[in-house]
Amino acid sequence: MTEPLAEMGVLSEALRAAAAAAEAYLAGLEDAPAAPAGIDDAALAFGAGPLPEQGVGAMAALAELLRDGVPAATRSAGPRFFHFVTGGGTPAALAADWITSALDQNSFSWVSSPLGSRIERVALGWLKELFGLPAAWGGVLTTGATMANFTGLAAARRWWALEHGREIDQDGWAGLPQLPVLSSGYIHTSATKALSMLGVGRGSVRRFAADATGRLDLAALESALRELGGRPALVMATAGEVNAGDFDPIDRMAELAHRHHAWLHVDGAFGLFARVSTRARELAQGIDGADSVISDGHKWLNVPYDTGFAFVRHPELMHGTFALTGAPYLPVGSDERPSFGDHGPEASRRARALNVWATLRAYGRDGYRDLVDRHLELARRVGEQVEAAPDLELLAPVRLNVICFRFHPPGASDGALDELNRRLGAAILADGRVYFGTTVYGGRVAFRPAISNWRTTEADADLIVGVTRELAAGL
After folding, report:
1. Checking phi first, is residue 229 left (phi over 0); if not, alpha (psi -120 to 50) or beta?
2. % of the chain beyond a pLDDT of 90
3. Residues 6+ apart with CB under 8 A from 247
4. Does an H or E element contain 73, and which?
5. How does pLDDT run across 106-129, given as a tens digit for each residue?
6. Tens digits of per-residue pLDDT, 321-342?
7. How far apart are CA 304 and CA 410, in angstroms?
8. In this structure, are 194 and 70 located in the same domain?
9. Are residues 276 and 320 in the same domain?
């Protein structure tokens, strides 16, 4: 390795080069295709060869990354990337993210990072205010919705085991019955993955669906809870189903769960932001009656990857699975000087709270209310365009920011439509002007573009239908 003092000499030069390249890249996002031509080939070609015996130095490595690596990147931070419910970094969040990398804090404890710990506590408090959650709830920032679900469900598992008189985090599963898990058909794969990691098992979930889309059969859920006879259970609710943006009836589920001795967990990876809106708040009624709630920051909060948050009604339950015990050198946190490594799965933790704090400080409640409401209007605009097009079919009402539709030319047989839409989906991704993929909704292959980027305008949203119909005409 180059001598440290020599590397110090190029640090400023490398940072200036990176800043200039980043600024140029971001300035081009407004007009760039969501997926530039040739990105697959560029990605496959980049970084080939064995580990070098002699390094080329910081500036040469950076130049190679900028020259050959950046062309392989999707413009996922841009206004026309509608895949996977993806936001983009607001100016405040992105700048704070650069500062976060420069400070390089391990934000697992107050001792290692007083700044990171303090800002995380403040940011979590502001998020609870933003979403209308009780101030007394516990919270922690995570890498995203999967680990946020893992955190909330670990608290649920601990509660359930304590109801059976067992310390599961100390003693394990031995001697305990199967944990009953009940949900609608809307449950997301990140939630079932978290159940798998917790030892509950993906196959433990009983889904009560009233139709092929997964909509909750509330009467069947109530009957199943009644059959448990008061034995503790876990009820899973979804705020913002990924295919069409629909919601479980969370207020009714909360009432049932608490009447029948069950824990209610709400996966609100993007749907929790309905509580910020003036136009969709009623969809998320009852979330403050849950026992744990999660969401993603890199979706509608528009902070850089990777950020999520988990909130738990009883904070003390977060310590069982995640407490850092048996190591005397590790500091013990307090309410005023928290150690968030005891609240969530990571012991080594990036100070991602700086991004969250900065964007909330910059834009406030009104800024996020306006952002969410604007995106809802754009989604409904696209939905109206789909309904007006003779060769497109809207498969579900536009309830939030997802538009679920398919290509359905007059006279096409049902048997041919799935394959036709798969081919069209591949063409949309290859074209790259807009970016969204296919799903299966109600047994039919469909598209599900989602609008959640702060840069997206009417002109960007209008491309969804325009490009889809243009490419469909060439099939």
Report:
1. left
2. 90
3. 238, 239, 240, 241, 271, 274, 283, 284, 399, 400
4. none
5. 999 999 999 999 999 999 999 999
6. 898 887 888 878 788 888 999 9
7. 43
8. no
9. yes
CA angle at residue 408 from 403 to 410, to 5 degrees?
145
Which residues, including other chains, have CB under 8 Å from residue 334's CB and lie 6 or more apart?
A: 110
- Tally of domains in the chain: 2
Q: For residue 216, what are the β-bridge partners?
A: 209
Last residue of a domain, one of 322, 346, 362: 362
Same domain membership, residue 58 and residue 156:
no
**By the 8 A CB rule, do 309 and 340 touch?**
no
Q: What is the pTM of this model?
A: 0.96
Domain holding 155, by residue range, is 95-362
CA distance 61 to 287: 48
**CA gap 288, 103 in Å, rounded:** 35
pLDDT digits (tens, 9 = 90+) for 348-363: 999 999 999 999 999 9
Q: What is the CATH number of the domain that holds 133?
A: 3.40.640.10
What is the pLDDT at residue 336?
84
The edge-to-edge listing of strands for the beta sheet with 181-183 is 138-142, 308-312, 292-296, 262-267, 233-238, 181-183, 205-207
- Cα gap 244→231, rounded to integer Å: 34
Same-domain check for residues 223 and 325? yes
